[in-house]
Design a protein that fits this description.
Keywords: Glycosyltransferase, Transferase. This protein has about 350 residues and is of the alpha/beta class. It is built from 14 helices and 13 strands. The chain is globular, with a radius of gyration of 21 Å.
Amino acid sequence: MHILFTLKDFKPDGGLERVQQRLARQFLNDGQQVSYFVMNGDTADDEGAVTLKGGGSGIVGLLKSVRLLRRIIRREGVTHLIAAKEQANLCAWFATLGSPCKVIYTRHAALDCSEQSISPAILRLLYGLYLCGNDQVVAVSRGLRQALADLVPWGHRRIRYCPNAVVTEQLLNAAQTPLLTGLPTEFWLGVGRLVEPKGFHLLLDAYAMALDSAALPDLVIIGDGPQLVALTTQAHRLGIEDRVHFTGFLSNPYPLIRHARLLILSSFHEGLPTVLIEALALGTPVLACDCDTGPRELLDHGRLGQLVKVNDVSALAEGMLRSLVSPGQAAPSPQVVADAIRQYTSQYAAQAYYQVWNQ
């Protein structure tokens, strides 16, 4: 079996890229041959897997990538392909027309994610194309799978759920390394790319509001992105610049996740928030905005962590204050957590993909 991961780009701070790497490493451990095809020419830094470069960005890059990918599939004997993000999905669809290669088109983001300027009508057309023939579509949460099935009801039998590969020995080992210097000993934590849908501006407003009512740990935010300047300016305006610490991108955020007193997810939209799984695996209590897909399913309707209303500063601030009053309620027993996150191990995720291909 030669499995080719097809991606539009490869951002080192991307959650999608992390879970694809973990899945790829599990396939390698299973004895499969694994390669990457990255359309814009980025290199997937993954030992044991070759990166094959595409034709670049834009429409011209897409057309070149289709031609290159088609040639690579024949030359390298690719038998199975996993595409992620819509440009890569579309490239894979054109490149595999008439090919015996078994293709899985994946959806990781919520359908209403404002980071992607694709209308529901275009999404319906795209997923209708992907489902022509014998190929499969995979969603990374059950809620997202249902949303796709509602979008393309005639193809619902070939829209499947496969959990992300999140929990690995490498993650657990990485969490044991020393903390960064210069950070507070007790802190709450937010993690993610600094873009509007992640709701970090909401997090700062809620933190400032809660700080008026109680003594709180400092707030640490891990991540980089276009909103960094706006968020630092907001922290200054709110008078909390001394209590909020922006670390920028960290290749290993796991020691901070493990030591945080609370991990807070303030997103407006999520497919399946990997950082919540990582926090649960490392024994960290979580507080999450109840997006349409992802957190409620992952946290078992609030059994594994607090859920609060999306895009509601007061609700998020109240959740923060509740975590101070009843910290034990935000931390389920280790056995309950172990049972809940077992499906997000790399071994389980790889088996789910094998099952989809074997249908």
